[in-house]
Amino acid sequence: MIELSALLTPLIILIVLLLAAAWSTWLERRLLGIWQDRLGPNRVGPFGLLQVIADMIKIFTKEDWIPPFADKALFIIAPMILMIMTLLGFAIIPFSPDIQIVEFDNALLFVLALSSLSVYSIMLAGFSSNSKYALLGAMRTAAQMLSYEVFMGLALMGVVVIAGSFSLNEIVAAQSDYWFILSQPLGFLLFLFAGVAESHRAPFDLPEAETEIVAGFHTEYASMKFGMFFIGEYLGVIFISALITTLYFGGWQGPMLPPIIWFMLKTALFVMFFILLRAAIPRPRYDQLMSFGWSVLLPLALLNLLLTAVWQLTLGF
Amino acid sequence: MIEIIFITTAIVCVISALLTVTAHNAVHALLYLVTMMIAIALIFFLFGSPFAAALQIIVYAGAVMVLFVFVTMMLHQGEQSIIDERTLFSLKTAKGPLLLAVILVIELLLIGITPLDNPSSQTALNTVNSESQQLSAGSKTASLTSVKSLAKQLYGPYKLLVIIAAMLLLASLIAAIHIARKSSKLTENSPVNGDSESKASEAAP
User: Fold this and answer.
1) How many structural domains does chain A have?
2) According to the model, what pLDDT value does residue A128 have?
3) Which chain B residue has its CA at the smallest distance from A115's CA?
4) pLDDT tens digits for B34-66?
5) What is the DSSP string of A160-218?
6) Do the Cβ atoms of B196 and A74 come within 8 Å?
């Protein structure tokens, strides 16, 4: 029986996540529509909710084309790496006190390791496509994700210093009195910037900047391989939102409602915030993005870590 | 169970190391190297040191190797470089090194086969066994390799080493900034390269 439930929990989480990622495409299109004074997809089903299914049928029945000039093996592996790395990340997230796949002492390091490995997906996609635009996108990705990973790690350390642990469960438990957003506002902002850059969403979507380099790293991709990048991006957004919820907004903690509902509500709020960011902020130039990272975010992240450490040593517990 | 995982990981590690050397496509070779790094991280993990495993992935597989792949991608010449590799690397050139390496492997096997009365000749697998028993014994409680005890060691008896490492990193950072600095003649252009290079020197040691 224990074996069965141990298998069942990850399976249910997996299905829920994939469905959530699929429907967040609908959510994004609807919300963008509202914010841009239009309707968005509203024809298929109530409120256009079934649009996702129509899109799925379309994308599954498209021709699965691999360009003859591509590096075939890498071309096929690349989207898989993205999906696997992003989905693996959810294994350590405490969705509620009972629902969690693995309790892991070094969970945050695991998150950093996964985010650093998922760079390969995009780099390999760009390289194996053997096309200029894809390669340009891959170059940008490599530099952008390597840089923002540094700030992400440094911003996370503030939380680690306060909670005194890398374990997400202990970080959530440490927020029973107050949420870490109150003591780590700067750290939260830095993590948010880094999170947007890591999931390469607008405004930091330079790897796929469609006005400059066609579609960046996935220019040559079609059918479900493109679909995997597409869904992988939304999974990434959900993952970063779930991490923000866990690290800075008390995780599943909240009054009245059951923990899992609180967790989903908070995560959904941040997913919507990500969409709002896309609607509201234009894309910076590539070198602006890099110099913003290294000359603004890095010193701020170090300062945040220093102040947190001093605060913890003098006033802390 | 742990033995099986260890042996499989070790085999994956060795095979990917071999393929790193023999692969004709440079990017493929680098990917095998990444696989080897991940396999090594898994071995660290099996030895009961999750922190070292995480660092291995974050620093080597996630940062250093990404830069390697990045540079190789930029300088990649497509089919031509593969043809070059094929013609340059024939079995004839590998004969000498291969022979010497085989001697080392035979020595290693001999050490493994000799009986255990000599303490230094304890086989690797036995070490793994005792390590894994320790791991399963104290897996819940923080072991010797937990982050906290590691930090206490680093900032206690080994703080001189930490300071030296910091100085080394600072020196390489300054060197990288100096190389990448915009000279007054060359205005604008490539602030990006400088950034990725300073990252390289940060990650390299």
Assistant:
1) 1
2) 81
3) B62
4) 889 889 988 888 887 788 888 888 888 888 888
5) HHHHT-S-HHHHHHTTSSS-HHHH-HHHHHHHHHHHHHHTT-TTS-GGG-TTTSTTGGG
6) no
Nearest CA in chain A to B71: A139
Residues of A in contact with B73 (CB under 8 A): 123, 126-127, 135, 138-139, 142
Count of CB atoms situated within 10 Å of the CB of A235: 25
A192 and B CB contact within 8 Å:
no
Percent of chain A predicted with pLDDT > 70:
97
- Contact residues on chain A for B51, CB-CB shorter than 8 A: 106, 109
**Which residues have a Cβ under 8 Å from the Cβ of A194 and sit 6 or more positions away?**
A148, A149, A151, A152, A155, A297
What does the alpha-carbon distance between residue B131 and residue B119 come to, in Å, rounded to a whole number? 16
- Cβ-based burial of A248 (10 A; exposed 0-12, middle 13-18, buried ≥19): buried
Q: Please give the pLDDT value at position B164.
A: 93
- The pLDDT value given to residue B116: 55
Q: Tens digits of per-residue pLDDT, A148-170?
A: 888 888 888 888 888 888 888 88
Q: Phi and psi of B26, rounded to 5°?
A: -60, -40
Cβ(A131)–Cβ(A221) under 8 Å?
no
B157-190: string of b/e by CB count within 10 Å (b at 16+)? eeeeeeeeeeeeeeebeeebeeebeeeeeeeeee
Write out the residue range of the structural domain in which residue A125 sits: 2-314
How far is B202 from B163, CA to CA, in rounded Å? 15
* For B41, nearest residue in chain A (alpha carbons): A113
**Which pTM value belongs to this model?**
0.79
Q: Give the pLDDT confidence of A117-140 residue by residue, as tens digits.
A: 888 888 888 888 777 788 888 888
Nearest to residue A122, comparing CAs of A105, A109, A139, A107? Answer: A139
For residue B202, the tally of other CB atoms under 10 A from its CB is: 16
Rounded mean pLDDT of A229-258? 85
Q: Per this entry, what is the length of chain B?
A: 205
Tell me if chain A has a CB within 8 Å of the CB of B125. no
Lowest-confidence region among A134-138, A237-241, A296-300, A304-308: A134-138
Mean pLDDT, to the nearest integer, of B169-181?
88
Instruction: Confirm if B199 and A294 have CB atoms less than 8 A apart.
Output: no
Torsion, CA A292, CA A298, CA A301, CA A303, rounded to 10: -110
Which own/partner pairs from A158-161 qualify as long-range (CB within 8 Å, at least 24 positions apart)? A158/A184, A158/A186, A158/A187, A158/A304, A158/A305, A158/A308, A159/A108, A159/A184, A159/A187, A159/A247, A159/A248, A160/A108, A161/A305, A161/A308, A161/A309, A161/A312
- Sign of torsion, CA B97 B98 B102 B108? positive
